[in-house]
Amino acid sequence: MARAALPGRLTWRAATLVGERRETPSARTLVLDVPDWPGHLAGQHVDVRLTAPDGYSAQRSYSIASAWDDKTVELTIQRVEDGEVSPYLIDDLQVGDQLELRGPVGGWFVWREKQTAPVLLLAGGSGVVPLMAMIRARGTAKGKQPFRLIYSVRTPEDACYAQELSRRVRDEPGLDVHFVYTRVSPRKRIDVATINSYGWPADFTPDCYVCGPTTFVEAAADILVALGHDPKRIRTERFGGTS
Amino acid sequence: MGIISRGFGGRRRESVPGLPPGQYLTHDFPVLSAGPTPRIPLDRWSFTVATETGEKKKWNWQEFTALESEDVTVDIHCVTKWSKLGTTWRGVALDTLLADVETAADYTMVHSFGGYTTNVPMEDLLDGKAWIAYKFDGEDLEPEHGGPARMLIPHLYFWKSAKWVNGLTLMNDDEPGFWEAAGYHMYGDPWLEQRYQGD
Amino acid sequence: MNPLDGNAMAGDLRELFTVDVTAAHYTCAGCGHADAVGALILWGQEMGHVGRCPTCEDVVLRVVTAPDRVFLDLRGSVRLELPRTGS
Question: Which InterPro entries did the record assign (chain C) (predicted)?
Fold first, then answer.
């Protein structure tokens, strides 16, 4: 599992859809079989390339949602209205279909089991995906690192992995999850009070991972710095929202 | 490898006759940016022409917009393969700005707020081929599209039409600007598909 | 238009290099700030990657991908520190 990539340059490889799950009305998890997959670290992503019959192609990055289990690679795709790739992946791609995939990539926004510090995960919308991979990797490794996830999402119906998260909170000591609903009364945003109450104090020197739309990431990272967290321990991944 | 995704159309794209090679028609106005969008208050805006001998001529916003302006309707072609037809602008021709400038320079470097640069031969700025535009579609040019004012050089790929312009340096020798230094073509003629160096 | 993080160019760079450059450390030529390439603020994705220093906004790194070539411009970086073994 520690072996994140084979030596040599990466190229595109064929992946086959072997399973799927509906996570929310606007999100679908693709379960992909990728021959010779070298394994991946929690937080890494892949690039997906689709090519139309006339040769036009489009490329997008998606975070890996699953912990490496020696079998498949799971991506959770959030629909971007008017997007050109995500509607196809959600509505049209069928089990047995193939697509081109390059990865795993990204060795910076990752969590490794050997990290011992407490972990604070801040998710905005579909930014939960790579953070879920970290929670799953901790679960697979039966890790003891204290984990806290603050998950900002529009409504409970828009929350991915809700059942699995509550099961893991019940079964895996040291994992806490707090939801912030931005479109349910009283409408909330992630703020200083939320992170103070449901995050870790800066004194605990947690490793912080922030993922979501650019505005969410910048607001959340600013709050962490204002609360005294070391910028070197804050890792961010912005979603462009053009997929 | 080339896996074809049946049913994948991608963004709607029309290949209409009369476009430069490799271009598709778009009806919206995509925004590309190599950095944060600068917000320039009009009272802090200025445009400076610096000649090869170091002489400078400068206009503030009031002086600039008092110059004779023209309405132009042109097709624009982005190196990322979209083209947009019949776009309407108002701006000041570079002929007007350079009319009283003493120079023998063959090349220019366009400068922008935020540090962007792009190189354009002098002859491509003259004879009604280039403008500094401050209205698009009858409205003040929005910051995301280059407002308060941007270069408009429609016969070259659109990265040459620098957003947020604030100056022009006249040069005896050609030098690469921001994208040209990073691999894009020094001239950028869409009809010759001069996208990258060596094309 | 919103920027991304340096992370987002990991795939394009792994097509060129046998190590993950986004985990490497750059030193900004403009202000001397040093951090992971993955922490750069990434602009300009359609024409190429423009990685800007999060501290001073200077351009640290540019990657332009042509159909048959890739241009990597590092003039904004005085140093790049790469791990010798994978991850």
Answer: DUF6510
Which pLDDT belongs to residue C2? 84
A51 and B5 within 8 Å at the Cβ level: the answer is yes
For B42-69+89-184, CATH number? 3.90.420.10
Domains of chain A, with CATH numbers? 13-105 (2.40.30.10), 119-239 (3.40.50.80)
Q: pLDDT tens across A106-138, in order?
A: 999 999 999 999 999 999 999 999 999 999 999
Contact C20 A45 (CB under 8 A): no
Amino acid present at C61:
L
Is a pLDDT exceeding 90 seen at residue B46? Answer: yes
Helix (H, G, I), strand (E, B), or coil: what is residue C81? strand
Spatial separation of the C-alpha atoms in residues A16 and A100, rounded to whole Å? 9
> What is the residue-wise DSSP string for C5-52?
EGGGGHHHHHTT-SS-GGGSEEEETTT--EEEGGGSEEE-TTT-EEEE
Nearest to A108 among C3, C7, C86 (CB): C7
Inter-chain CB proximity C1 and B31 less than 8 Å: yes
Quick check: A3 pLDDT over 50?
no
Q: Find the Cα–Cα–Cα–Cα dihedral B23, B28, B34, B36, rounded to 10°.
A: 180
Tell me what pLDDT residue A7 has: 58
Determine contact: B28 vs chain A, CB below 8 A: no
d(CA A64, CA A67) in angstroms, rounded, equals 8
Domain boundaries, chain B: 42-69+89-184
Q: Please give the mean pLDDT across all residues of chain B.
A: 95
CA distances from B23 to A19, A45, A60, A240 (A): 38, 31, 21, 25
* B11 CB within 8 Å of a chain A CB: yes
Residue A241, pLDDT score = 57
Q: Is the pLDDT of residue B148 over 50?
A: yes
Tokens 């004879």 map to which residue? B127
pLDDT for residue B1 is more than 60:
no
Give the closest residue to A70 by CA, choosing from A145, A1, A158.
A1
